Task: structure prediction
Amino acid sequence: MKKLWGGRFKESTEKVVEEFTESISFDKRLYIEDIEGSIAHCKMLAKQKIIGSEESKKIIKGLKEIKKDIEENRFVFKKEFEDIHMAIESRLREKIGETAGKLHTARSRNDQVALDIRMYLRKKTCSLYLLIEELQKSFLSKAKEYLDQIIPAYTHLQRAQPVLLSHYLLAYIEMLERDRERFIDCYKRIDRMPLGSCALAGTTYPLDREYVAKELGFSEVTRNSIDAVSDRDFAIEFVSALAILMMHLSRFSEDMIIWNTTEFGYVILPDGFCTGSSIMPQKKNPDVLEIVRGKTGRVYGSLMALLTIMKGLPLSYNRDMQEDKEQIFDATDTVESSLKVLIPLVLKTSFNRKRLSEEAKKGFILATEIADYLAKKGVPFREAHEITGKIVAFCDENKKDLTDLTLEELKRFSSLFDKDIYNDIDIKKAVNNRNIIGATGIDQVKKMIRYWEKRFE
Result:
């Protein structure tokens, strides 16, 4: 077929080149953005009397018909079209004749694709924002359900201190909130309208770029035509936010995978989100969580690909930038699917209260309480730490827990120990005595639950 740009060429494009350079196979998903952008551009051309009013109506009618054709699977995407822009313009020419050629007045595929990507990312930013909120609500629901359940918390995968399970779950809400904030902030830099930049230098036509921006819901127009068509930092920032979000999802998945093992037995994953083994009948594998963890690397790969694509490009537009879309699409799809599967998984997950309560008391998990007790009695904390370390070593040698020690045994290490030590090493009191902002005490956790309930209203 004849190319819309083919006037300069004497020979037709080689078939192997068409197959190598086409992007229609993946950028066809931008058809809505491309048509909406074209309609706004066409209205502006008529408003500015660059094309006639009737011509504008004819073009817009044709574009709306093409949109309907695509949605009803009557549109054939051919590789010869190269990309979604050429595909729609070629079909428009078939529908309305040579008038279709006027649509491309005062624009280029360079600013057209920049517009389409920005419009696409605006939509995805909003949908991801809502999905993240739904996942946060799932965590909040579980935090309320297990409000007073004490668990052993870990550092270095070693038991550290007792905390409330609700406090642990609220930690992921905080992480996800920062993820939401990143998307909100990123949106500001996506929400700039590039159409009118043309190939790179703008145009001599008297365009009303602000009108197009208003038609398409952009808050402002880009300020430099070279920059507008040649950078994808806004897309890189978006995928960076996706990568950080996936890191958080992966960390949660890792916790649940470990907690699901027989060795831990802290969590009971819903059957509908697990699979079995083809050879071992007893297996209940956390495949969904493992796949989320695995897909995180895929999103990281997309981020690195985008950074690498852009790092050496001279200004302004280069065809290398065609490779951005597959990375953007794949990373977005991966994160969306991960969020959608984790929302119900979290809601349907239950925790083994008996096991958690038993394990929370083991591993000298109240050692810090003893050190703090001595410090409050006037012992310098470093000295209190050393004394407590010796007590732990004594317990380890004699197969005792800290709570098993008699007052007489404790006094061997410091005369400052008195009966009130047993209040400090009561696990429930040890947790709830942490009653400062941000701590695990139940009063603070209740306040945070109320905060998030109000926040989500």
